[in-house]
DNA sequence: TAAAAAAAAGGGGAAAATCCTTTAACCATA
DNA sequence: TATGGTTAAAGGATTTTCCCCTTTTTTTTA
């Protein structure tokens, strides 16, 4: 019986070993080799014997990351199916990865049986998506989320000021706007980013490098 | 005429060059050499010819920072006078540096004339302090600032919770305290740290690594 | 140029945060 | 056992924030 061929691409040594081992333990799958980043993978694909059916691809890698690598594969090796593997649960990242051509998106703490199902389904049906990922996909289609979530210049300006000890009234003065307009800004941003209050906004701004303390 | 000997210790190449140039331009001062960190300086001091009268010391350096280096000099080369040079305007840092034995504390955007005066005064009077630094010094003596500024364990715990979207009432529940007590905590902390509101507290906590977003 | 969309502003009200003062309970220890 | 120090808690007043919902003004676009 011919085993399905798999390549694991992940810069985290321990994890790629573990995942490789898991895949090898499935009787109808075989790990050809593992790579530390996209560049390494692309190099190896020069040899026809090294071209797998499926790539388990980490998203966050140095040199050439999962998104870029997947885009490259879609262009140059369209028959290779990419299954993304990541700790990132960030919607934007998941969307980028899927748009780049990934056939599925697994979180790294995936259970053995789920990994197996994912591998099989990707080969048979061409895709595998958990409920979470499906929901994100649907949402992104139905309400043009990215565009609406995009922060405008003036909003960014406001956020930076909100990361200080100034009151909204003071911020309004600085931005030459009415306090009521500032409230509007704040309310829009809260809704866009699913925030409850200013503290959440400050943390968000710092996490996303809008404001650097 | 004998020129006064100076060594510049700063890991920022450009800046140490600039400062060195400035010092050399004073007719009665001469830069012996520059170092990138405290370790380098200590090594060079083995040679008696390399022992200067005065060291212009950066506070933030890798390997061996300004405070540790100044402490070492106080112990082993008490005749070398240290003039601290930093972008840090943090009270605690300034105090540490002075306690370590620095004879003065200059901000890096110091003007030429002020640097000159500082160098002269340190050599002649033994110290040079700007108004700002003097005030900090006085304050630290009069009201035992350090001890009172020290945050207690429970306060740290509170601060971490304040860096979330929780209301004070929710925080009170979590900490098994009355909301009024939580208010007390907050007020004490605001006063200690000269803060106006929760936003300021969040920024402070992140800056000081009490809360890592 | 009229219609649509986005930006700005407003009113009102409830909740939360801020500020100030005072009280209660509990220790330590002189 | 009085004394003072610390921590916890409360009352009351004021400001700021947050949340609806509506209106006006400006800009964009069909």
CATH homologous superfamily of the largest domain in chain A, by name?
Response regulator
Structure classification of chain A: alpha/beta
Give the spatial strand order of the biggest sheet of chain A. Answer: 2-1-3-4-5
CATH class of the largest domain in chain A: Alpha Beta
Rg of chain A, nearest Å: 22 Å
- What is the beta-strand fraction of chain A? 5-15%
DSSP, total strands of chain A: 5
Q: List low-confidence stretches of chain A.
A: 142-146
| Shape by Cα distribution of chain A | elongated
- Secondary-structure element pattern of chain A, one letter each: EHEHEHEHEHHHHHHH
Assembly level:
homodimer
Taking the sheet with the most strands of chain A, its summary is: 5 strands, parallel
* Overall average residue pLDDT of chain A: 87
**Number of structurally distinct domains of chain A:** 2
Biggest interface, chains and residues, is: A-B, 16 and 16 residues
- Counting DSSP H or I runs of 4 or more residues, the number of helices of chain A is 11
Can you summarize this structure?
The structure is a homodimer of 213-residue chains. Chain A has eleven helices and five strands; from the N terminus they run E-H-E-H-E-H-E-H-E-H-H-H-H-H-H-H.
Tell me what the structure shows.
Two copies of one chain form a homodimer. By secondary structure, the first copy, chain A, is of the alpha/beta class. The first copy, chain A, folds into two domains: 4-142, Response regulator (Rossmann fold), CATH 3.40.50; 151-207, Orthogonal Bundle (Arc Repressor Mutant, subunit A), CATH 1.10.10.10. Helices cover 53% and strands 13% of the residues of chain A. The first copy, chain A, is built from eleven helices and five strands; from the N terminus they run βαβαβαβαβααααααα. In chain A, α3 links the parallel β3 (54-58) and β4 (81-86). In chain A, α9 crosses α10 (179-193). The first copy, chain A, starts with a strand and ends in a 6-residue tail after the last helix. Chains A and B meet through α11 of A and α11 of B. The structure holds a DNA duplex (30 and 30 nucleotides).
């Amino acid at each position: 019986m011919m085993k399905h061929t798999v390549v694991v691409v992940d810069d985290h040594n321990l994890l790629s070993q573990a995942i490789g081992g898991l895949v090898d333990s499935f009787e109808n799958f075989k790990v050809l080799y593992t790579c530390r980043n996209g560049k390494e993978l692309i190099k190896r694909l020069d040899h026809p014997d090294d071209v797998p059916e499926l790539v388990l691809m980490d998203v966050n890698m140095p040199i050439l990351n999962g998104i870029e690598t997947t885009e490259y594969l879609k262009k140059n090796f369209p028959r290779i199916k990419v299954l993304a593997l990541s700790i990132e649960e960030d919607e934007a990242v998941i969307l980028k990865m899927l748009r780049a051509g990934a056939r599925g998106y697994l979180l790294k703490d995936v259970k053995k049986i789920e990994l197996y199902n994912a591998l099989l389904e990707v080969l048979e049906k061409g895709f595998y998506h958990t409920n979470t990922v499906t929901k994100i996909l649907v949402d992104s289609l139905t309400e043009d989320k990215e565009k609406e979530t995009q922060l405008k210049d003036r909003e960014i300006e406001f956020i930076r000021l909100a990361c200080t000890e100034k009151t909204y009234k003071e911020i309004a003065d600085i931005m030459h706007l009415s306090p009521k307009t500032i409230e509007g800004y704040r309310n829009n941003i809260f809704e866009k980013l699913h925030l409850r209050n200013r503290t959440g906004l400050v943390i968000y701004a710092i996490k996303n490098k809008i404001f650097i303390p």
